[in-house]
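User: Fold this; tokens only.

Assistant: Input:
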Amino acid sequence: MFFRIRTWSYNSTEIDIGLKDRPSAVQAVDARKAAVEEVERLLQHPEDLKRLPNMLEEYTQKHQANKTQLSATVASQVDAARAGMELLDSAQKTLTKMQECYKVSY
């Protein structure tokens, strides 16, 4: 079973987010439930609504940072895969040339 824990911190409160090897729909439902519980925890009193714009701005900034990091990681992996494919292509061409050389000498 695949199990991964990520810790997310908001206002010095750590929240453990566990992802198990489960269908995506179940993960989506669990994520929505966890999000609702977190919002309920953060907004327990009417005066907590005054913090909502700041919380939204912080969430937006974190979301953008995560999106940027994910894009950079994917781009890096694509570049690495492309370089690997080019190396494989070069190796294949070299092997083909070597096979042709051996065919001629027999």
